[in-house]
Design a protein that fits this description.
This protein is α+β, with helices and mostly antiparallel strands. It contains 14 helices and 17 strands.
Length: about 450
């Protein structure tokens, strides 16, 4: 039952938030008077950042529209990278989000709080919120958006999300001889360009809802932040290439794959995503520690294994609190006979009802290593096989089934699968003799 209740809460969690308290009271709108777009502009301006869409922008002069496909006519490589990214798949290609969005409109409506990070531009929203009835976040008063672009909505997190403001195309240089107006925006090279959605913490007690994305703070307060790292350094690798295919000199740009968990949003996207795993390192590594060269038959054995956040500048996992990692260590003897197994869940656990509260958090901090032990008795002969496996989970199997996402969504991805063998050598008698000799060498107890 808790899993089902948490799913309702997760409808909000796909939005972005920026404070741990509820937003300030919204301006009242007179229900007797028809709401206006001007009311919506005023309403959004008074909201926390996570409840604000990117303000309306006209199409830059020289361009027919704001579609990513239009940008791709000149910026072909960048467009091809974006097209297979999670950003491009964040709207109708995201079956989990669509299921949660539909549920968020049942009985009450908090969907307007969710869409600002999946279709961030005002131009992508069919309706705007002009106010709240009785100041309730789940009772929005809508007004039709005269600037709604249905085709642009399908682009999800698109080029214009970051690169267009007030009818001007923004870039890190601003000196391109382009057929549209351009302006340099240094913020595009900072984490601030990402944390408008990826720093998202807020609690709404009256709705039993919470938003728990703290990735920006995790980076800023960790060792990578101290060393001046930005989100882009890892998630948008630098590359020297022409900004315009075949039409400009080579210069420093960044890839637009936005690699993260690299779990495809749909099974049919696997072939597109798979090559990126050779480009982006896995954040977590796992290994056995101080393995002996061989095992003595019949002897008790304690092995240690390690999980390490080796490459992520934030907590691992980060973002949506439903994400977790399962690290599994197993030992089998001849013929696959099980000798020992241990499974560790790394992530957060929340209680969603009757109040929202975090029950536990055992995620790995940046560069943190953690060890666990595994005990068993060595077999009499042969060898033992040690195996370490790690799997990233975006959504639990229970919630996957609850939303009927089978075949339409990918819940997890195994990213570590290591095996090694240890021989069993010597006799049980020799092992026992060694144990007796070791005991005799111990100093007498007083």
């Amino acid at each position: 039952m808790r899993a089902i209740r948490s799913l309702f809460s997760l409808a909000l969690l796909t939005a972005a938030c920026s404070s741990r308290s509820a937003p300030p009271a919204a301006p009242a709108v007179d229900d007797a008077a028809a709401p206006t777009v001007a009311d919506a502009v005023t309403f959004y301006a008074r909201q926390p950042r996570y409840l604000q869409p990117v303000p309306y922008t006209p199409v830059p002069a020289g361009l027919p529209d704001l579609r990513a496909e239009t940008c791709g006519l000149c910026h072909q490589e960048i467009y091809a990278e974006w097209r297979i990214s999670t950003h491009a798949r964040a709207w109708t290609d995201d079956a989990q989000f669509q299921a949660e969005l539909e549920k968020s409109r049942t009985g009450r409506d908090v969907s307007w709080m969710c869409v600002n990070c999946h279709t961030p531009l005002v131009n992508q929203l069919p309706r705007l919120v002009a106010g709240l009835r009785d100041e309730r976040l789940d009772q929005p008063i809508y007004v039709d958006n005269p600037n709604f672009d249905a085709a642009l909505q399908q682009d999800a997190i698109t080029c214009a999300t970051c690169h267009v403001r007030d009818g001007v195309v923004l870039g890190p240089y601003g000196d391109t001889n382009a057929p549209h107006p351009t302006r340099r925006d240094p913020a595009l090279l900072t984490s601030a360009a990402c944390t408008q959605c990826h720093q998202a913490t807020a609690v709404f007690p009256e709705l039993t809802l919470a938003c728990a994305f703290d990735t920006g703070r995790e980076l800023a307060e960790g060792p990578y932040g101290d060393e001046g790292f930005t989100c882009q350094q890892c998630h948008m690798p630098a590359v020297d290439r022409p900004l315009i295919t075949g039409g400009s000199p080579s210069r420093r740009t960044r890839r637009h794959w936005f690699g993260g968990s690299l779990i495809p949003k749909h099974p049919r996207f696997e072939a597109e995503v798979a090559p990126l795993r050779d480009i982006y390192p896995e954040g977590m590594t796992a290994r056995w520690l101080d393995l002996p060269g061989a095992l003595r038959p019949g002897q008790p054995v304690q092995l240690r294994f390690e999980g390490r956040n080796a490459a992520a500048g934030h907590m691992l996992p980060t973002g949506d609190p439903e994400r977790y990692i399962v690290l599994r260590a197993t030992v089998v003897g001849a013929g696959g006979a099980p000798l020992a197994a241990r499974e560790v869940r790394i992530g957060r656990v929340f209680e969603w009802h009757p109040t929202v509260r975090e029950l536990s958090d055992n995620r790995l901090k940046p560069r943190e290593a953690r060890t666990w032990t595994l005990d068993f008795v060595a077999p009499e002969t042969g060898e033992v096989t040690l195996r370490l496996e790690a799997t990233k989970w975006r959504i639990s199997p229970e919630n996957m089934a609850y939303h009927h996402l089978e075949g339409r969504y990918v819940a997890s991805r195994q990213f570590i699968d290591q095996t090694t063998t240890l021989p069993v050598r010597g006799s049980a008698a020799a092992a026992a003799k060694e144990g007796d000799e070791a005991e005799e060498q111990q100093p007498p107890r007083r």
